Amino acid sequence: MSKRFSNTPNIKLGIAAVSRDCFPMSLSENRLKAVVRAYGEKYGAEDFFECPTVIENERDMRKALGELNAAGCNALVVYLGNFGPETPETLLAKYFDGPAMFVAAAEDDCGSELGDNRGDAYCGMLNASYNLKLRGIKAYIPEYPVGTAPEVADMIHDFLPVARAVVGLKNLKIISFGPRPQDFLACNAPIARLYDLGVEIEENSELDLFAAFNEHKDDPRIPALVEEMTAELGGGNKMPGILPKLAQYELTLTDWAEEHKGERSFVAFANKCWPSFQTQFGFVPCYVNGRLGARGIPVSCEVDIYGVLSEYIGECVSDEIVTLLDINNTVPGDIYRDDIAGRFDYTQRDTFMGFHCGNGSCSIMNSPVMKYQKIMHRGLEPDKEPDITRGTLEGDIKAGEITFFRLQSTADAELRAYAAEGEVLPVATRSFGTIGIFAIKEMARFYRYVLIEKGYPHHGSVVFGHHGRALFDVLNYLGVTDREFNRPAGIRYYGENPYKA
Description:
It is a single chain. Helix content is 38%, strand content 21%. The protein is an alpha/beta fold. It folds into two domains: 157 residues, Rossmann fold; 304 residues, Alpha-Beta Barrel (L-fucose Isomerase, Chain A, domain 3), CATH 3.20.14. The strands form three sheets. The protein has a six-stranded antiparallel beta barrel, surrounded by four helices. Helix 7 crosses helix 9 and helix 8 crosses helix 9.
């Protein structure tokens, strides 16, 4: 496959210790060095800058800020080695251009006396958090933010995916082509909240995309890209005749991304893919969408702007390939009885099929095959060999842990989100498209009281692995207060009938 795009930020962490002037500065200095040493031993410290200035006052804060900026830091750790000065430490987070976290030192073993080596950072963290709220400054504070050097090192490592997502969004441009298809108003996208998140958007028409595609006719790079696609597909290359057009389309999108990202560093696409796409372009774009996703540029179907935003956040958090699927259909009873019941600890209503036409990458599917879009073929070219409906990549999605995730702006422009952890089961779907049998505990209640009750569309981003914790922290940092998850049995949702059968 072509080289993966650098489409998420590299995080350069800077850590600055603070010290209240009535406490020994040596406490913060020595404890900081212990944290840096513990982090390096466990995670490596090549992208971890130890700020030489320990901050006691506002002048120190300005000096430290200059040191952090000169080192190229884009994420900050404020470390309370003792009680800490609440004004300078919170102003550092205010003036630093990037996400900041606050952590504090637990007391060291004291022997027979806890005197001059007592730092009281447990108390200082309360003042720091209160001051942050008074000033309206966003900061990441771990669930229990006070710890020994190895514990603080782990907390800092947990901050990395959060920082990657926050920095990524501030440097992201979403590029869209075409209005959403008719009857896909569920994927509505009020753009005001994108700006609140720091995301830029460029909206284009399908004609812009079509013109750019035609300009790439006979592009000299097409044959080499066709060879690459052929090698990638291997025995699954059942529609070789469509590959030149797909290569032409891939080059169109990658060139557009480079030419239109402007002052932004990262891009994602929300593209129209039907109904007129097939008749005018002469193929379906699914395979290319999956290839770009595998190379680091997520592409959502059906101009789903918040869908691709969710994919991008998932990519930043997981540092892995993501995809976008419909929460599509129930699992037939015979499949559940024959292949799931007794083998896996799920009820039939905990399971469903996640599906899209063929937008997955080769790496997420078992035995992927290039095919045609069955539903579109039915309507556009019935009773004939597939032609303009070719271009899907089909296969069952590989088994493993997943997190279904979506961040959405409602019709009245309020942000809300969900993250539900589950898995793809190693069970054959007997169906078509990019598809898998998903299992999420208490899915039936989640479906009714989150997806339906709160008006979510049918699209969800699939993040491979369990990343609910990091996603929750990202949403918290971004100020999204409506954060849902699949609640365990016995914990009711708001509005859930307590008297139901």
